[in-house]
Specification:
CATH architecture of the largest domain: Alpha-Beta Complex
Helix content: 10-25%
Order of helices and strands: EEEEEEEHEEEEHH
CATH superfamily of the largest domain: Nucleoside Triphosphate Pyrophosphohydrolase
CATH topology of the largest domain: Nucleoside Triphosphate Pyrophosphohydrolase
Radius of gyration: 20 Å
Number of helices: 3
Strand content: 35-45%
Structural class: alpha+beta
CATH class of the largest domain: Alpha Beta
Largest sheet: 8 strands, mixed
Number of strands: 11
Length: about 200
């Protein structure tokens, strides 16, 4: 087998596609086949895909106070979690038509945390669950004044009930170790923060 083989968007074929549901998310299935590393083509494979708009999230950090601002809210995907479906996470949202990622995180920081964000730095751009979804997430870190972080926020028309929480940066490492922070975007961003401060 040639270890230098690389594939591109020309090396697969979608044979059939069907939309099963369309709402906040879209669920579709398709028949696909792709080239194989050892040569030839795969058989026709049925795959389901959750289709979502691109999204962005921002780690809110106050460098003067060395504090991190996280939000806590109900998450349906964690209903089966033994500790309950409320999660500590980053401010995040889905890109609206004509909006760029930086504008999105500035808007969402105001809506979800009541704060103004400055000095945005992009951390990374990744696919959270490419085995089942095409969602793409761009992560940022932005500076805020954590002394102003408090209260309940979110848009009522979106059913949001978001509590703002402030932690010393060092405590967020313990929150990860103890499993209180258990979603990928928040873990990646907090680890990035620790690495960049070394």
């Amino acid at each position: 087998m040639d270890k230098d083989i690389s594939f591109s968007s020309q090396d697969f074929e979608i044979e059939q596609e069907e939309i099963h549901y369309q709402g906040f998310i879209t669920l579709k299935s398709f028949q696909v086949r792709h080239k194989l590393y050892e040569g030839g083509w795969s058989p026709s494979l049925r795959r389901e895909l959750v289709v979502r708009s691109p999204a962005a999230a921002v780690l809110l950090y106050d460098p003067k106070r060395d504090e991190v601002v996280l939000i806590e809210q109900f998450r349906a995907g964690a209903i089966g979690d033994p500790s309950g479906p409320w999660m500590l996470e980053l401010v995040a949202g889905v890109v609206e038509p004509g909006e760029d990622f930086e504008a999105l995180v500035r808007r969402e920081t105001q809506e979800e945390a009541g704060l103004e964000v400055t000095d945005l730095v992009q951390i990374c751009d990744y696919y959270p669950s490419p085995g089942a979804s095409d969602e793409r997430l761009v992560l940022f870190c932005g500076h805020v004044d954590a002394s102003r972080a408090e209260g309940i926020h979110g848009l009522a028309e979106e059913g949001e009930d978001i509590r703002v929480k402030v932690y010393p940066r060092k405590q967020t490492v313990e929150l990860m170790r103890q499993g209180y922070v258990n979603n990928a975007a928040t873990i990646i961003a907090l680890q990035w923060l620790e690495l960049t401060r070394l």
